Amino acid sequence: MASLRKGKPRIWVTWLTKLLGGNECVWSAWFKAHYRYDKFEEMAGDLAEWNRQHTALMARRRHELEADGWTITVEQQNDFELEGERAIVAGKPDLIAKKDGRVLVVDGKTGRQRESDIWQVLFYLFAFQKARPDMAGTLEGEIHYLKDDERISVTPEELDADRLDRMVALIKLVADHEPPARRPSRYECQRCNIGSRDCPDRVTQAATTAVGEF
User: Which residues does residue 152 pair with via DSSP β-bridges, in sequence order?
Assistant: First the structure.
């Protein structure tokens, strides 16, 4: 049974960036931020394969950077918490590389390019300037895609006033004590680990009914 978290709502960057990139169920992020719950994994097999591919991708990029003289920290070493009046926003970039006063934030992706990818790295660049003074330096971002080994650069300057306003507004919405309306869809529900016990509106595979040949 879900139980209310103590203290301020705790929001992960990845929840916010998916919403900014086009997902519509703000309620799922709101629930995760406010409650502890038993997680439900509908796509556990896909998640295991994603982990395998992602780990290999980042290991390869780490080796490249280290060979070029960068000092690397990974995932848990990179975690941060940015505490505001209403909530705590947390995250942990895949790789942080440091060299000659430069700080490169690398996030690996095994799927196709999405708008949320840009938002995620922008969030990291914004947060690191405030929450991780030990990472002082000239900040740069990189999205590293498995397909074609493509890399896209992201700079702090891309976080303009409009984007920053959207980020802050979304954080306030997710942190609010009143829940937003649920917006279930098959695509989002398949990738959401909130089960039907906590979200009665969840769309399941059972919603597909065989009706014969078309």
Answer: 143
Reported residue count of the chain is 214
Is residue 32 packed enough to be buried (19+ CB in 10 Å), middle (13-18) or exposed (0-12)?
buried
Give 137-179 pLDDT, tens digit per residue.
Answer: 788 999 999 998 999 999 989 999 999 999 999 999 999 999 9
Fold classified for 3-207: Trna Endonuclease; Chain: A, domain 1 (3.40.1350)
9: phi then psi, degrees, rounded to nearest 5: -55, 145
- What is the Rg, in whole angstroms, of the alpha carbon atoms belonging to the chain? 19
Cα 117 to Cα 17: distance, rounded to the nearest angstrom:
7
Q: How far is CA 28 from CA 7, 85, 211, in A?
A: 19, 21, 31
